[in-house]
Amino acid sequence: MQEGSGKQARFIENENFLSYGLVPATTPTSRPMPSIPAKPPRLTGEALCAGYDSRRVLDGVDLTVAEGKLTILLGPNGSGKSTLLKTLARTLTPSAGRVYLDGQDIHRRNTREVAQRLGILPQGPSAPEGLTVRQLVGMGRFPHRRLWRQDAERDARAIREAMAHADVTEFAERSVDALSGGQRQRCWIAMVLAQETDLILLDEPTTFLDLKVQVDLLELLSRLAHEHGRTLLVVLHDLNLAAAYADTLVMMRDGAILRQGAPRDVFTAANLKAVFDLDANVIRDPHSRRLVCVPTPGVHAAATSSPAIEGVAP
Ligand SMILES: Nc1ncnc2c1ncn2[C@@H]1O[C@H](COP(=O)(O)OP(=O)(O)OP(=O)(O)O)[C@@H](O)[C@H]1O
User: Fold this and answer.
1) Are residues 153 and 71 in the same domain?
2) Residue 272 lies in a domain
3) Ligand 1 atom 11 nearest Cα
4) CA of 84 to the centre of ligand 1 (A)
5) Which residue has a Cα nearest atom 10 of ligand 1?
6) Are residues 243 and 126 in the same domain?
7) How many domains are there within the chain?
8) Family, per the entry (predicted)?
9) Most buried of the four, 1, 110, 211, 225, by CB within 10 Å?
10) Which domain holds residue 290?
């Protein structure tokens, strides 16, 4: 994060001052340089086991979400993606393993503190009846409000910007339940953005969105990561959009992570078969240079014998 690294730089300067400030100018090179304290990853799951009642879904999952990157979680229906997201966001308590937020066990942090750092949009959220879009988006500001201190100007700016990013400003005064599924989904995204957290977890945010709006949303998420240093973990079902926008793809099956890495390394026909049991070719679009998966039910064996489309050129 820009701000975080700035703070760290100042800290190091201070440490240099403390170490060397009173030492004559000729001697510093003989002193060892002070070690830079390693910054813990923003969000890590270690050996996570989680599920519902007696049913175990996650089975020893390890995941470190890369800071300032867009990580996309893929996997077949029921593979445990939402369960992993909920466990990482503390909505679900793991039966074993730990989640660390900025190096501290997330279950030892208070709710407000977590909500100021991590925003999650679950699958299929529902809003109280009659709530306007502006009110819904304003709910994203709750973690920043205190009884004795409110920053109305900052709240209003965050709400305005979030609505603009998600392109819902024109609906601001309308009731959420009078919107289409796609419009409503964008309002929820705006609510998470209004929370202004560095970490954003989104569970299938493109549901109900038309393709153009899906692309716009992924462009926005990519900008949030690459230009604003936010850390994003997003569940998607669209393989091609995932391969086009992810810095890291995490592929789950049966409650475990089977593959993870940059799309050029893991978005392969063999991995799509192993994770999704999907017969497909992975080709590179000659114009965008992006990887594209083309399902080939029934023709896979013949198609993959063609070297022109079989391999994934880096
Ligand atoms: N609240 C719940 N109570 C009981 N079982 C649940 C609950 N939520 C999910 N499950 C079960 O846990 C397993 C994993 O579900 P999960 O929602 O994590 O999968 P997913 O990969 O997100 O699936 P999808 O792509 O369909 O959204 C599934 O077998 C599901 O039936």
Assistant:
1) yes
2) no
3) 78
4) 10
5) 52
6) yes
7) 3
8) Belongs to the ABC transporter superfamily.
9) 225
10) 277-314
Q: Is there a domain that residue 140 lies in? A: yes
Q: How far is the CA of 80 from the centre of ligand 1 (A)?
A: 6
Shared domain for 49 and 195, answered yes or no, is yes
Q: What is the DSSP string of the chain?
A: -HHHHHHHHHHHHHHHHHHHTTS-TTSGGGSPPPPPPPPPPSEEEEEEEEEETTEEEEEEEEEEEPTTSEEEEE--TTSSHHHHHHHHTTSS--SEEEEEETTEEGGGS-HHHHHHHEEEE-SS--PPTT-BHHHHHHHTTGGG-BTTB--HHHHHHHHHHHHHHTT-GGGTTSBGGGS-HHHHHHHHHHHHHHT--SEEEEESTTTT--HHHHHHHHHHHHHHHHTT--EEEEE---HHHHHHH-SEEEEEETTEEEEEE-HHHH-SHHHHHHHH---EEEEE-TTT--EEEEE-TTTHHHHTT-HHHHS---
Q: What pLDDT was estimated at residue 27?
A: 41
pLDDT digits (tens, 9 = 90+) for 11-57: 232 322 222 222 333 344 456 666 666 778 899 999 999 999 889 99
Report the CATH number at residue 118: 3.40.50.300
Q: Distance from the CA of 187 to the center of ligand 1, in angstroms?
A: 24
Within a domain: 171:
yes
pTM of the model: 0.82
**Least trusted range by pLDDT, from 1-10, 12-21, 184-193:** 12-21
Does 63 share its domain with 193? yes
Q: Is the CB of 57 under 6 A from ligand 1?
A: yes
Clarify whether residues 129 and 193 are in a common domain: yes
Q: Which atom of ligand 1 is nearest to the CA of 255?
A: 14
- Residue 74 Cβ contacting ligand 1 at under 6 Å: no
**163 and 20 in one domain?**
no
Mutate to test the pocket of ligand 1, among 56, 73, 79 (most ligand atoms within 8 A of CB): 79
86 lines ligand 1 (CB under 6 A): no
